[in-house]
Amino acid sequence: MSVRLSKIYTKTGDDGTTGLVSGARVRKDSARVAAYGDVDELNSCLGLALIEAARNTTPYSARLHSILAPVQHDLFDLGADLATPMPPGEAPSAALRVVPSQTERLEHAIDELNTHLKPLNSFVLPGGTPLAAHLHMARTVARRAERAAVTLHALEPTQTSPETIRFLNRLSDLLFVAARVANHGGSTDVLWKPGANR
Fold first, then answer.
1. Taking all residues of the chain, what is their mean pLDDT, rounded to a whole number?
2. Is residue 141 within 8 Å of residue 46, measured between CB atoms?
3. Which residues contact 176 (CB under 8 A, 6 or more apart)?
4. Which residues contact 153 (CB under 8 A, 6 or more apart)?
5. What are the residue boundaries of the structural domains of the chain, listed by start?
6. Is the pLDDT of residue 10 over 90?
7. Distance between CA atoms of 18 and 20, rounded to whole angstroms?
8. What is the CATH code of the structural domain delimited by 26-84+95-187?
9. Residue 149 in contact with residue 83, Cβ under 8 Å?
10. What is the mean pLDDT of residues 52-60?
11. pLDDT digit string (tens) for 99-136?
12. Are 46 and 72 in contact (CB under 8 A)?
């Protein structure tokens, strides 16, 4: 898939519509645009987390960066997938789609990172180190993107790949585990104390 951007504004969206990869125009508040818009926001949050990981000198930060940096490319693949409704009988490789191996790579990363974490006996508050806080922010946006993809799939089940939902579900899990790793292997996780302020 090649991309060439020469002109940034076209004025074609001034009527509240936008173009999909297929060339079809849809309203900017459609379920499909909402889904890939949330994925775009997620990628921006992940970018901030990666900047924090890159300037962090802790032993785990380089590993987290190496695991998560490729995910930004996956998220562009995911956005392209969501922006391209599946036509009936689509041939394999006819469009850029998220594939199971991308989701499986996230699972392998979760298993690797989670091996060194102690089991939790409470929910974790989104905080701790700055890197962990950025990862928690990305995690919550991933969950929103997942909900948007579920809505889209319910509205357009034959035109939306279910792998998009699986990928986002697994990515939010990875970001949760990565946030715990960024909290010094979970030792500085901020744990919820039910009723603490009653």
1. 90
2. no
3. 124, 135, 136, 139
4. 160, 162, 164, 165
5. 26-84+95-187
6. no
7. 7
8. 1.20.1200.10
9. no
10. 89
11. 999 999 999 999 999 998 988 888 999 999 999 999 99
12. yes
